[in-house]
Amino acid sequence: MINYEVYEQEIEKGNVKNGYIFCGLDEELIKDGISLIIKREVSEEFKELNLIRIDGMNTSFDDIMNACETMPFMSAKKVVVIYRANFLHEKSDSTGTKIYNDIKKYVENLPPDTILIMYYLLNDKRDKPNKNKKLNTTGKFLHVVYCDKLKRDKYLKKVSEVFKEKGKQIGKVELMYFCEKVQSNFDIIKREADKLISYCEGREIKKDDINLLILNSNEDDIFDLIELIATRKIDKAIDIMKEILYKSDQHMLIISAIEKHFLRLYEIKIKISKGKRLEDIISEYRLPQFVCEKLMTQTNRFTEKQLMELIKICVKTETKLKSTGIDKNMEMEFLLINTLTVKK
């Protein structure tokens, strides 16, 4: 298993292998990595014939094998990309398990003129690919690329390239400030860059523009906190709560964010029960697909009754925090402990 930076260096040297598995939380970073191979191995002239994309959530082994076995047209190589290959998750349904077992045997002898690329998204930042037995097995024949967070200099350079590709320059100071404010996810980074570029059309981007358009967010920390509440790991939840308070000593904003998150989970759970699907949630909340998928997954960890009770606990804590003469940190810890009393 190699990280993104090592992978990028290998591609720059022209050291392209016949098979890859990408995994990580940042789908845009994964797509950027895959595009390095596509640009190098597939000419624009014959791209439609020598680049095959397959939805890993709606495919079969036969579809994948047939795509790999087809000869490239007027080219030495052909690229087959299986996106959202959820059958690579350590735990998958019976259909996914069957696809994986067939692919596991097939990749031992891939056609030499085919480059097979598969990727899947990790569930959260605690999901470690080196513990995935499926990757350890297929990794003997395919190169596994773990797209984790980039090192600071590499990260700054890559974010700068996002602006350059969109035809906009950003100063070094403003770039660093932008990177501090925005979430470390290239789907979000590209969206926020678009907003800034549109707002600052015809002039330079300033720090005031970044402050105006990009709000500070503890969303990732709040999501992790809710996940620990769902799994009743309150000791770890308290540790994360302390980290959040250390970064931003604003108890009312944090309790409001937790309450809002539970409310959103409740709303999504109701919508799902009424037949709403992923695309409906994306449209209604105007959030990136990966965010909506994470929210929908998290709703499954709670019942409607639990979410209603958790919202009530948040409201009670919020009321107490408005009082004077109380230990606010202690009240936040009591909030987490009280979640243990909520039953399904």
UniProtKB/TrEMBL annotation:
Keywords: DNA replication, DNA-directed DNA polymerase, Nucleotidyltransferase, Transferase
Keyword Nucleotidyltransferase tagged: yes
Family matches, as Gene3D superfamilies: 1.10.8.60, 1.20.272.10, P-loop containing nucleotide triphosphate hydrolases (3.40.50.300)
Catalytic activity entry: DNA(n) + a 2'-deoxyribonucleoside 5'-triphosphate = DNA(n+1) + diphosphate
Pfam families per the UniProt record, alphabetical: DNA_pol3_delta (PF06144), DNA_pol3_delta_C (PF21694)
Lineage: superkingdom: Bacteria
Top-level EC class: transferase
Domain (DNA polymerase III delta subunit-like C-terminal): residue spans on this chain: 219-338
EC number assigned by the record: 2.7.7.7
All residue ranges annotated as the DNA polymerase III delta N-terminal domain in the record: 20-143
UniProt family annotation: Belongs to the DNA polymerase HolA subunit family.
PANTHER family: DNA POLYMERASE III SUBUNIT DELTA (PTHR34388:SF1)
Name under which the protein is recorded: DNA polymerase III subunit delta
